[in-house]
Design brief:
Chain lengths: 368, 285
């Protein structure tokens, strides 16, 4: 028994180790100038997608509910993060208190605050969406999350936010409806999104966000609450029968997942000079779901690897030029076939069993 | 074969229910009055009355489809009763949901085993201990000292409970990979882990051979004596029912047709009729 516990710990440390080693390796390669310019531009998106995949894995793999609207929470986080960052910058220029000005003119403080607020607001949206969504199960839940993803996208593209001497103004009609004073700034301009963002994100910030995400998700999974969430996945009626509120733990997983997606969204938005709502559409939700499915349901390390490889792959495949997307699709299909091949799984399991000697084989999550 | 082991004397309550004499000084743990449910016009259970003493082992028997499991589902609020009242420890349970019922003191097992198959045996028991180890989500994520303390406690408790059924060597196995009998025992342990006052067992001996059933019988009595709880069970194995149950209720077509001690039940003509049909000449084909 002690050994199983040990093994869970080893498993988690392996995940942390992988992330830290990968970070150091990339830093060294960057210092040596060995990473192409195009790939350098992908570094922050990779960290964003890793956080997205890990957080979605909490809903899909650990809670066992298919969510097709994860990009919606990313969108909420992206816009609230971008707006927060812009407001903080304005505040830094106008405030008379020295320590606030000093604090807010430090980029990483603005970035952390933006990610924090992006996460919190996305978490609140997660709760609001969760109230109706979590009344459903299975396919119905998937369809409703898809709808909410689209609703969020469309609401974001008609949202106008401005700032002037009187404070923040919000409208859903047009920029003129904001009725800003002279000298006021339009921060978010409907379908054009947020323009003129100061780039705050960095690869290191992404790395730290990944670590925080891993600490939250892995520690949650291996605690009382995590056991309850996994119990809900396995059998709802049995979970109720041992005195655990199914609603509460489904909501906990859903909101945590949305919060992390929101923080990732803020990091994503602050990596570019502008951000539009169209970016966070159904395709993005599916892309993240592909990371989770290929990495393995409930397998956090798998999500990290899948997100990295599948984000880097299109860049690497540029060499194939016009066959790029074709090759990408073929690789996806191949990975899926290999993962679901019973013979190969058996071989894989035997290798695993041999490595861990006489330990009883313990399946990680429910592998489809 | 059907010789009763228990020599408990049963005494009537004012409500005409019977409970063991040793429990009569205290209020019954469970009192059910005129409980009923109908599913869109089909009356599944009607006018069901029972009282269960604090340390009683009580049996619920009846032919297939008589409504026995439905009663368990009503008691644990998987179904909402359409009429009647359920008092647990004297408290009305009409506003409680399934999880609250468990916290109030009723734990159960299921006829078709419902474990958490992808989790380890130990985790299954720890999930049963969920409400006993009350640290919150933040403590778990930040790994505060309270987390380690509570988890250590949970582990000790889980191992103690598993030990009752000699299941400690299986602690790290996946629950879904256990043999049938062990799964039944694990479900029993998980229900016990929630510290119930009343334990509902739905066909605990299903699929067991005579020696396993014999072991189960002594286990049920052992659990009752050690934890001083009431146990109510549904069972088709008459050797078990007549052997360990002190009070028995017989159900047919959703209604109680007989109540009493094992001896009374065995000789009750209504019960014999329900199980074997009427004497020849009156048979309906």
């Amino acid at each position: 028994m002690k050994r199983l516990r040990l093994r869970t710990n080893v498993d988690n440390w392996l995940t942390y180790g992988l992330v830290i080693v990968a970070y150091i390796a990339v830093r060294l390669l960057l210092a040596g100038g060995n990473i192409s310019y195009a790939l350098q531009g992908q570094l922050v998106p990779i960290t964003v997608y890793i956080v997205m995949a890990v957080s979605l894995n909490l809903t899909v793999g650990v809670l066992g509910e298919l969510s097709l609207g994860h990009a919606g929470f990313m969108s909420v986080g992206a816009f609230s993060g971008a707006i927060t960052a812009t407001l903080l910058e304005l505040l830094a220029d106008t405030t008379s208190t020295t320590w606030i000005r000093l604090g807010l003119s430090t980029p990483w403080i603005r970035l952390s605050l933006a990610m924090l607020i992006g996460g919190i607001i996305a978490g609140i949206f997660g709760f609001l969406v969760g109230v109706p969504v979590l009344r459903l199960q299975g396919d119905y839940l998937a369809i409703v999350t898809l709808a909410f993803g689209e609703i969020i996208k469309n609401v974001m593209s008609i949202l106008y936010v401005g700032y002037d001497a009187n404070g923040i103004r919000v409208s859903m009609d047009s920029a003129n409806a904001l009725k800003l004073d002279e000298g006021g700034t339009i921060i978010m301009n409907g379908p054009m999104g947020v323009i003129g963002i100061t780039k705050l994100s960095s690869f290191t910030a992404g790395f730290i966000l990944i670590l925080i995400t891993l600490i939250i998700v892995l520690n949650l999974i291996n605690s009382r609450a995590g056991r309850a969430i996994k119990a809900v996945r396995d059998d709802k009626i049995a979970t109720e029968s041992v005195g655990i509120s199914v609603w509460r733990y489904r909501m906990m997983a859903f909101v945590t997942s949305a919060t992390l997606a929101g923080a990732a969204g803020a990091l994503y938005a602050l990596n570019y000079s502008s951000v539009v709502a169209r970016k966070f559409d159904f395709n993005t939700s599916i892309l993240v779901l592909v990371f989770v499915v290929l990495g393995g349901m409930g397998n956090i390390r798998g999500s990290i690897i899948a997100a990295t490889v599948l984000t880097v792959l299109p860049e690497v495949l540029r060499a194939f030029n016009e066959y790029r997307m074709l090759t990408y699709a073929v690789i996806l299909i191949a990975v899926m076939l290999v993962r679901n091949n019973a013979t190969l799984q058996h071989v894989y399991k035997q290798i695993g069993a041999r490595l861990s000697k006489s330990l009883p084989t313990r399946k990680k999550g429910s592998e489809v | 074969m059907n010789e009763s082991r228990s020599k408990t004397k049963m005494v009537p309550l004012p409500s005409q229910a019977i409970i063991p004499e040793r429990d009569a000084t205290q209020r019954p743990i469970l009192e059910v009055y005129r409980l009923g449910i109908n599913f869109g016009g089909l009356v599944a259970v009607e006018d069901f009355n029972i009282a269960v003493g604090r340390t009683e082992i009580c049996g619920l028997i009846g032919p297939n489809g008589a409504g026995k499991t439905t009663i368990f589902n009503l008691l644990t609020k998987v179904y909402q009763p359409t009429s009647g009242a359920i008092l647990l420890d004297g408290k009305d349970t009409s506003n409680m949901n399934t999880a609250q019922i468990n916290r109030a003191g009723i734990a159960r097992t299921f006829q078709n085993i419902r474990l958490f198959p992808s989790l380890s045996v130990e985790d299954n028991v720890k999930i049963g201990l969920h409400n006993e180890i009350g640290y919150n989500m933040g403590t778990g994520i930040l790994r505060l000292p309270a987390f380690y303390k509570a988890e250590r406690h949970a582990k000790e408790r889980a191992m103690d409970l598993l030990n009752l059924f000699d299941m400690t060597p299986l602690a790290s196995h996946r629950a879904g990979s256990l043999p049938y009998g062990a799964q039944r025992r694990l479900e029993f342990v998980r229900a016990l882990a929630t510290n119930p006052k009343l334990l509902l067992l739905d066909e605990p001996a299903a699929g067991m051979n005579p020696s396993e059933t014999e072991e189960l019988m002594s286990n049920i009595e052992k659990i009752r004596d050690q934890f001083q709880i009431a146990i109510m069970l549904i069972e088709h194995d008459m050797r078990l029912v007549m052997g360990i149950c002190e009070g028995i209720a017989v159900l047919n077509y959703g209604q109680i047709i007989a109540k009493g001690t094992p001896k009374e039940i065995q000789t009750n003509p209504l019960v014999i009729e329900a199980y074997l049909g009427k004497k020849k000449g009156h048979q309906v084909c």
